[in-house]
Task: structure prediction
Amino acid sequence: MQWNSLNEFLAMGGYGIYVWPSFGVTAVCMVWEVLALRRRHGAARAALVHPSGTMDVTS
Amino acid sequence: MKMERINWFQWSSPQALYPLAGKLIPWFAWWSAVCITAGLYMGLLVAPTDFQQGDSYRIIFVHVPAAWMSMFLYVVMAGWAAVGLGLKARPSFMMAQAIAPTGALFTFLALFTGAFWGKPTWGAWWVWDARLTSELILLFQYAGVMLLHASIDDLRRADRASAVLALVGVVNVPIIYFSVRWWNTLHQGASISMTAAPKMAATMLAAMGIMALGFWLYSAAVTLMRVRSIILERERHASWVQMERVS
Amino acid sequence: MMQMGMTGAVLSLVRRDLLLAWRRRADVATTLFFFVIVASLFPLGVGPEPAVLRTIAPGVLWIAALLSCLLSLGRLFAVDYQDGTLEHMLLAPQPLTALVFGKIAAHWLVAGLPVVALSPLIGLQFGLSGDAIVILSLSLLLGTPTLSLVGSIGAALTLGVRGSNLLSALLVLPLFVPVLIFGAGAVASSESGMGAEGHLSLLGACVVLAIPFAPWATAAALRIAVE
Result:
């Protein structure tokens, strides 16, 4: 383990303001993509149950 | 539905791809979660501080895998596009269409994390370095493929036109990279090198490799999720899809 | 086009396109005028400092050439698409790739060559030396064919699509990057004493690569668009 305390870990040797946004934005984007895709799949299935539903993707 | 023998043409229908993707997604998703967790643990907690760059170098544990995936996914997308054009197989086009947004996302992430690595390392958020510039142009190319697909109403034509564009782009990526690198060395001298850490400790390399593997598994899971949505949206009038809604 | 050989068919296609362009001289003039205006706006935006203008001149001229090429690419297949000539081309006994090459050649003669011819004049406006002007014109002469070739892919892919001109520009501009770099770099390189041969030969390599590849991709894109 590299770090002696949580504060030291968060400070990242003074580079915390660069390191954490990088990891944070990556995490947010990836989690958001998964959630958005689950929603899209749910909407696509819902449109099957109600074929005249709001989803209108011409095939 | 009978599946008696393994026949590759069996997969060449959306009807077969849909359940197959459904079976594969959990596998890819769990392993990607395992790899990314392990990679983060190694990268953030175990790997030693770099003696030149301090702890800012830890950004490369997301930056380098994201950059690799952005390029890899473009090639895979072009590969599916080529298969689609060659075999006239709709699922291949659907795979190509499903990969593009994830590839674009990783390209954006590579640029974003690259800027946050560049600021402490080079003292600037953006440098007209060959890799950064090529990555930016790669983002434009992803955007072009997606825009072209979205702009053509006839899906058959949209599939094939964006496949041609993806293939043209894959020829161009190396030429662009080479030209920008050449341009860059003429203008700045070789003063800036991305490989600022010549020798990386074994734990650093391992952490990066595991993160890259995790991102690869993530991309596979996400692409298959998207392709399932695409199949449902496009084929919703097909009889098998109507059966699906009961299950 | 009865029983005509491939070369004959391509040449007659070029002749036809040149004749059509001559009948629509205004279109050609618009493109050229656009090139001159874009280039002339830069000194007004950047300031009249001669040293600055000399430095940016190659890049400005090249970008103006890219934009004016894009402007004219919209017409490359659109007219033939509307009046049905394109379908005729697709059904012709000659290979479509060769016919497409003829269309591209005609486009370059109408839209590329005049820009090359005008470039020395704009170069003078920017205070370039005689040698720099020669190299700039040479780079445009070698590079603009690649613009027509690569641009034709975008024009074919977006044929008949809503907002096709803008979309085609978005698709094609990233692909123009190498040509821009080698073309605009040639002058800077010769000014700094390193010689322009490297840049010019790379521009030549781009054309040599684009000549077989681009018409083929364009032909594929046209088939997709018309089918």
